[in-house]
Amino acid sequence: MDPADTAEVGRKEEEHEPETSSLKACFSQGLKQLHKTQELCNATLVAGGKRFPCNRALLASVSPYFQAVFTSDFKESRDGEVLLKDMDPSLLQNLLAYLYSGELALTAENAEDLFTAASRLQVTPALEHISRYLSERISKENCFHLYMLAYDHNNPTLLRSTMHYLGLNFETLLEHKDFPNLDLRALICLISSGHLVITSEMYVFWAVQRWVAAALAERLPVLKTLLQHVRFPLLTPREIAEVQEDVATLDQQVELQWGDLDGAGRLQASGGLRQGMYQERIICIKVPRLRDILSVNEDMDCYMECLDPATGSRTKLPPLELVALPGCSALDHKLYISGGKHPDGSYSQALHEYNSVANHWLQLPAMSTPRSVHILLTCKHKLFALSGWNDTGPLASAESFDVVKQTWSPIASLPVILRFSASASYKNKLYLIGGDADSDEVVYQGILLYDILLDTWVQVPLEFCLHGAAAVTMETGICVLGGFFAKKNTQTYPNSRFSQLLPCTSKCFFMREDGVISNEVTIPPLPLPLAFAGAAYFQGKIYVMGGVCTSRTHDAIYHWEPGESSWTQYPESLTGQGTVVRRVLKCVTLKVLKPNLKALVQDDSASRVAIGLADTKVPFKERREDNAPSCPPDPLTSLGANTP
């Protein structure tokens, strides 16, 4: 046979040769076959008079319960027969089918019974699967029932989910018929949480009052313990009077302790505000260029304002020293501005924090490296200052700031120096999408991913080049909007502006974890090509503000909600008067005080305030009765929104 023919035959044989199965696939297929034929069974489970042959090694590998049974000296271990009293045979059959095939016949009707059975037998994989199923179906009708189910079986997944739901809907659930059935530990965990979604501290007092009154003789001894978790300094004088009257009705011996406190003192004595006492707003940061801050015609004494899209109201933030192109980010109720370039040409390494509760700026420890045109992101209570530029040239260095410890630390340097990237944080990772690389003004055709847990960077290629786009983190991924766009990087552009050489685009796309672009989420194109626009995710909608359209600035505001086919223009412009915005714009969402609390916590004059119980000698926020059940770490905190 001709060698060429031999090679052709070989190629065809290779083409038809079945692919080698993975170990996982072989194992899964083998288990299914063994379950079907009931071969190699060396144990028998008995439930409801029915016998279920099975393999003890399989059971012991996934269940601490069966591992203990089959490795003990008991009769069950020797004979291999385990009698499961009061176990529904259909539930056992369902769980065994799951262990052998990975398929669980889970429905709304059998989920709770399967949860109980899996918990009893400690079938961990099935229990986790059922817990997630139940967690996704928590409602006002079943939340207390599911909480008690989770508590009875000490299941952390379902317990956290139900506690989280109770905290989010606390105000409306106070009147629920099952609320008084909460155990003391659960009630303390709820009312001590800073993540409780309530608009007034009175809801915490009403919760204590209703719970105690439901079984007065039995629960009155723990009234003082519960009242220690009411943040009295957050109550108005009228509310305090109501509390005093109602407490006296329950227990004449309980008295309040008073002190002279101003707004800052109220916050310190209370231990902080609850989550529901804030409301989200969009902060528009008109990040100036150097030419703007040198211009005498620019009114730049305050370049940040708080926007409420629902009402159109705008409030200026207190003024801050003006610098060109600083980093901007936000975390809860605090806004951070880092670095930038001073009017004299020097670079800043300062970090400033705006506290929306106190309504003032505070200077924090400075970055180790002065930088401008850098990226500032927040993730897991840390700030990340990435790349940028200073008088030494482009920077590959990066550093992180721990907002709790108030310290900066170096992190892994970027593999590519980037400016003007779209940036976002999502699931313990930072994303830098496109941008211009190094000092040669080469458009970067890729995504940089930084894993904050591993302190490592990874490069993910893109099929196109992108520069000056905006990015917004949503619940399931990252939205990338507009920018200067090219299908491929054909040349470098020394001493030229990208806006003159790359086309501005209206295209938008959705990106999931690890830089995977998804076509499952369709984002309509922007109403016009835009780059360097500000973008924020606010109350379920994405807002895009300002930016550059080809070579001209633009000051319109658009919003889009997932599911809509197009963007909607906001009634007002960014300036409110249609004037041109000659600045780069950044947008962040920030938590601000609700109006009813501003007078309490921003009042500089001291007044008589109830700060706790009169018979307690330790500081209010540290008090706890010795006989009070201990509470685990805040379950509402452990489920925090990434956010993103």
UniProtKB/TrEMBL annotation:
Region Disordered, residue ranges: 1-23, 622-644
Comp. bias (Basic and acidic residues): 8-19
InterPro entries assigned to the protein according to its UniProt record, in alphabetical order: BACK (IPR011705), BTB-kelch_protein (IPR017096), BTB/POZ_dom (IPR000210), Kelch-typ_b-propeller (IPR015915), Kelch_1 (IPR006652), SKP1/BTB/POZ_sf (IPR011333)
Pfam families xref list: BACK, BTB, Kelch_1
Keyword Repeat: yes
Keywords for the protein's UniProt record, in alphabetical order: Kelch repeat, Repeat
Stretches assigned to the BTB domain: 41-108
PANTHER family xref list: KELCH-LIKE PROTEIN 32, LD33804P
Protein name: 41 isoform X1
